[in-house]
């Protein structure tokens, strides 16, 4: 006795999909490369800008501190010279 096998398809396979997925246009290598290049350049420029801005801020603070130190030293020297002139005037009057 031989059993015959029949060929059947399910109803799901026979139906066509009702909502087709829209096909995405592939991004070309040139467009993708150009986008990557511009993104990388922009990011590198931004990082460099903030690095230089921070270095400028630090050097400006150091320069300001040095200017204040120089100003204090000049003020001390001025006061010392003023006291020496007063002593010399006092010695001149004694003579």
Describe the protein in words:
The chain has 95 residues and is mainly α. The protein has helices at residues 11-14, 29-94. The longest helix is centred in the middle third of the chain and has 66 residues, at 29-94.
Largest sheet: none
Low-confidence stretches: none
Estimate what percentage of residues fall within beta strands: under 5%
How far from one another are the termini? 152 Å
Query: What structural class should be given to the helix and strand makeup?
Result: mainly alpha
Indicate the radius of gyration in whole angstroms: 43 Å
- Give the ordered list of helices and strands: HH
Mean pLDDT: 85
The total count of strands amounts to 0
State the helix count.
Answer: 2
Please tell me what the overall shape is: rod-shaped
What multimeric state do the chains show?
Answer: single chain
The percent range for helix content is over 70%
Task: Tag the structure with descriptive keywords.
95 residues; mainly alpha
How is the topology of this model organized?
Layout: H1 11-14, H2 29-94
Short recap of the structure:
Helix content is 74%, strand content 0%. With 95 residues, the chain is mostly helical.
């Amino acid at each position: 006795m031989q059993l015959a096998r029949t060929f059947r398809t399910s109803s799901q396979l026979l139906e066509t999909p009702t909502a087709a997925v829209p096909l995405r246009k592939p991004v070309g290598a040139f467009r993708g490369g150009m986008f990557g290049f511009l993104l990388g350049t922009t990011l590198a420029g931004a990082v460099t800008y903030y690095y230089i801005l921070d270095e400028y801020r630090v050097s400006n603070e150091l320069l300001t501190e040095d200017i204040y130190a120089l100003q204090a030293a000049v003020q001390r020297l001025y006061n010392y010279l003023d006291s020496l002139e007063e002593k010399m005037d006092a010695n001149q009057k004694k003579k």
